[in-house]
Amino acid sequence: MRLSNREVTGFADIVGILNRCDTVRLGINGGEFPYVVPVSFGFEADGGRIAIYFHGAKEGLKHELLEKDRRVCVEADVFHRYAVNEEKRILTAEYESVIGFGTAETVSGKEAEKGLALICAHAGFENFSCGSEKALLATRVYKIELRSFTGKRRFV
User: Fold this and answer.
1) pLDDT tens sequence across 81-132
2) In Å, what is the CA distance from 38 to each residue of 11, 13, 73?
3) What gap in Å lies between CA 121 and CA 7, rounded to an integer?
4) pTM of this structure
5) Residue closest to 124 by CA, chosen among 15, 52, 14, 20
6) At residue 72, what are phi and psi to the nearest 5 degrees?
7) 150 burial class (0-12, 13-18, 19+ CB within 10 angstroms)?
């Protein structure tokens, strides 16, 4: 990281940033061009590891690309505000972000139910039943065990 004073190294701090994010962006190898798609997500964090869950239709470009190459980059961020330093005439953003790398694997059964429950909980619907049989039949659930991740923040 170019500016080490902005690096977030504490695991609890990185998890805190993810808790404040409502969307992650998946970077997928798309052939001629990269493909980036925003997705709702849920996650588990324990013992220094992070697993991200997301879902989608059983067909479409995201699914087709993940069938070819499951390696992904995950980006999550929280924009807080623009800040101006009048003295230096500098405009900057205050933000927090996490970037991680891993492999997206399709999960099923109890693991898929758990993934959907984590997605609903992260969206603020802890008691909503998202893992119904109907939902599981229409949805593909993915899990990404992040192999590596970094955090970054800037506050003026």
Assistant:
1) 999 878 888 888 899 999 999 999 999 999 998 999 999 999 988 877 766 6
2) 24, 22, 12
3) 28
4) 0.90
5) 20
6) -140, 160
7) middle
Task: State the Cα–Cα distance between residues 97 and 65, nearest whole angstrom.
Answer: 25
1/27: higher pLDDT: 27
Question: What pLDDT, on the 0 to 100 scale, is given for residue 92?
Answer: 87
The span from the CA of 67 to the CA of 59, in Å, is: 10
Residue 152 CB partners (closer than 8 Å, separation 6+): 1, 6, 7, 8, 95, 96, 97, 98, 99
* CB 35, CB 66: distance < 8 Å: no
